[in-house]
């Protein structure tokens, strides 16, 4: 019986460990984004996660490691949305869905994105891990748009130019929203983006 109980305990450990790590990461993400790296302590993260300081260090070794893990965790929803879920769609539909994924991610994470932009301006030396994650993700997304356009256009150079143009519009919409554009202005920006995308798609329709 004792052996069975010990075995059962070992089997339960990984889920418990994963749940504890997730609580620590969620607490760290919230505090890092609201307070910045320097003004967030391991004690604050431990208190918010409901664990001891020792548990934080056991799972993540130090604050820098935890911050890097938080940076990676922040982009997980976007990576999951891109990862294979759209690959089965035909190119026209895929481009439309990629735009939807981008805009949904921005809307769902707008407070964190706004906090991050402000933080980069204030503390560039500690924002490098997040910049690396976001820029890497940005390039993956741009590549997905370019791939879909290449399948339609059969012209890699033109697909690259159109993809860069669409991504520039999306990034501009994001920045305008961060700098205070209201919901009405954001709606106009989204409508304009889709109008440009539609013009590109119409340019390759059979005549």
- Number of beta-strand segments: 0
Overall, the morphology is elongated
Q: What Rg, in angstroms, do the CA atoms define?
A: 21 Å
Query: How many domains, in number, for the residues?
Result: 2
Q: Number of helical segments?
A: 10
The level of helicity is over 70%
Structural class: mainly alpha
- Mean pLDDT figure: 82
Task: Give descriptors for this structure.
single chain; 207 residues; mainly alpha; Arc Repressor Mutant, subunit A; 2 domains; 10 helices; elongated
Your description of this structure?
The protein is mainly alpha-helical and 207 residues long. The protein folds into two domains: 2-67, Arc Repressor Mutant, subunit A, CATH 1.10.10; 75-202. The chain has ten helices and no strands. Helix 1 crosses helix 2 (42-49), helix 2 crosses helix 3 (53-60) and helix 5 (76-82) runs antiparallel to helix 6 (91-108). Mean pLDDT is 82; it is low at 1-13.
Topology:
Blueprint: H1 2-35, H2 42-49, H3 53-60, H4 63-74, H5 76-82, H6 91-108, H7 110-122, H8 128-153, H9 156-178, H10 183-202
Helix pairs in contact: 1-2, 1-4, 2-3, 4-8, 5-6, 6-8, 6-10, 8-9, 9-10
